[in-house]
Amino acid sequence: MAQQTAWIILIIAGVIEIGWAIGLKYTEGFSRLVPSLLTISAMVISMYLLSIAARHLPIGTAYAVWVGIGALGAAILGMFLFGESRDPIRLACLALIVIGVIGLKTFSRS
């Protein structure tokens, strides 16, 4: 597998992580069946794709990028779906996550 393909798989895994992170809110503590099944399925798929990408990328980089994509996406969707804070300091911290993910991608040697 080409490294570029591993990065694409990693990005897909991160996007699916956003789905399960947001899905946690809808499970209401895993007390709702359908949202719980969808969230658990997304967790499994996301982690499986992360494991595929990690075969070809450094694990520290792959995991940090995966978490970064998920955290950033969940925070942004939380603002739109749940009315979470859009405080400028919070937005600046999210920008730091973006910078970190870009830096890890840019300076990854594998």
TrEMBL record:
<dbReference type="InterPro" id="IPR037185">
    <property type="entry name" value="EmrE-like"/>
</dbReference>
<feature type="transmembrane region" description="Helical">
    <location>
        <begin position="6"/>
        <end position="24"/>
    </location>
</feature>
<keyword id="KW-0812">Transmembrane</keyword>
<keyword id="KW-1133">Transmembrane helix</keyword>
<dbReference type="GO" id="GO:0022857">
    <property type="term" value="F:transmembrane transporter activity"/>
</dbReference>
<dbReference type="GO" id="GO:0005886">
    <property type="term" value="C:plasma membrane"/>
</dbReference>
<dbReference type="Pfam" id="PF00893">
    <property type="entry name" value="Multi_Drug_Res"/>
</dbReference>
<keyword id="KW-0472">Membrane</keyword>
<feature type="transmembrane region" description="Helical">
    <location>
        <begin position="89"/>
        <end position="107"/>
    </location>
</feature>
<keyword id="KW-0813">Transport</keyword>
<feature type="transmembrane region" description="Helical">
    <location>
        <begin position="36"/>
        <end position="57"/>
    </location>
</feature>
<dbReference type="InterPro" id="IPR000390">
    <property type="entry name" value="Small_drug/metabolite_transptr"/>
</dbReference>
<protein>
    <recommendedName>
        <fullName>Guanidinium exporter</fullName>
    </recommendedName>
</protein>
<keyword id="KW-1003">Cell membrane</keyword>
<dbReference type="GO" id="GO:1990961">
    <property type="term" value="P:xenobiotic detoxification by transmembrane export across the plasma membrane"/>
</dbReference>
<feature type="transmembrane region" description="Helical">
    <location>
        <begin position="63"/>
        <end position="82"/>
    </location>
</feature>
<comment type="similarity">
    <text>Belongs to the drug/metabolite transporter (DMT) superfamily. Small multidrug resistance (SMR) (TC 2.A.7.1) family. Gdx/SugE subfamily.</text>
</comment>
<dbReference type="InterPro" id="IPR045324">
    <property type="entry name" value="Small_multidrug_res"/>
</dbReference>
